[in-house]
Specification:
single chain; alpha+beta; Translation Initiation Factor IF3; 4 strands; about 5% strand; elongated
């Protein structure tokens, strides 16, 4: 049991009682055995001067081919002609924050809204120029309240201007107060829509 106590570095409780009885001669022997035990404990742990090994490089030929094919098959192939970004793993992706659409040209045709001015007039010359360039014009006569004669005069003036250009005037409401004049080369479907002015005009 003395070895166990010495192993933990504690004094042997039984050894101290027996050493008093035996005297000095036995105490000298225990000191010698303690030194031998200490020496033996020191020799139990081998001291080896080990040189750290340098890391060795593994050649690609030594790696099994199966692992290489698995690594290649997990990557997505970049499509031919790909000009977008590529992730860190080498996979192509669409960055939705980047605007790459080409700039659109200014439209050549427009939809115009015309209403009578302060003097209750309609600019028929300006409307005629816009219609000849292909613009579609919507004329709103609803502001001419309680002026039926003036509304009819505006309708007649618009109809005469459209006959000169070669287009027709269409009514978008039942009271003929909202009129549409399509631009040149604009096709209007009359079959599915009931369009036109009152027969009085």
């Amino acid at each position: 049991m003395a070895n166990l106590w010495q192993f933990f570095g504690l004094p042997d409780p039984e050894g101290s009682v027996s050493s008093k009885k035996k005297g000095r001669s036995s105490s000298n022997r225990t000191k010698a055995t303690n030194l031998q035990d200490d020496v033996s404990q020191q020799t139990l742990i081998p001291i080896v001067d080990s040189i750290p090994e340098t890391p060795t490089l593994i050649e690609a030929s030594s790696i099994p081919k199966q692992t290489i094919t698995q690594a290649k098959s997990s990557l997505v192939a970049i499509p031919a002609g790909w000009k977008g970004p590529v992730s860190a793993d080498g996979e192509p992706f669409h960055d939705l924050g980047v605007i790459t659409s080409p700039r659109r040209s200014f439209p050549s045709r427009a939809l115009r809204y015309v209403a009578p001015d302060e003097k209750k007039r309609i600019p028929t010359r300006g409307i005629g120029q816009r219609i000849s360039t292909g613009d579609t014009v919507i004329v709103d006569l609803r502001s001419l309240v309680h002026m039926d004669a003036h509304q009819n005069a505006c309708r007649r003036e618009l109809k005469m201007m459209c006959e000169e250009i070669g287009v027709e005037v269409f009514s978008l409401d039942a009271e003929d107060k909202l009129l549409m004049i399509p631009g040149c080369d604009v096709v209007v479907d009359r079959g599915s829509n009931h369009l036109g002015l009152n027969p009085l005009m």
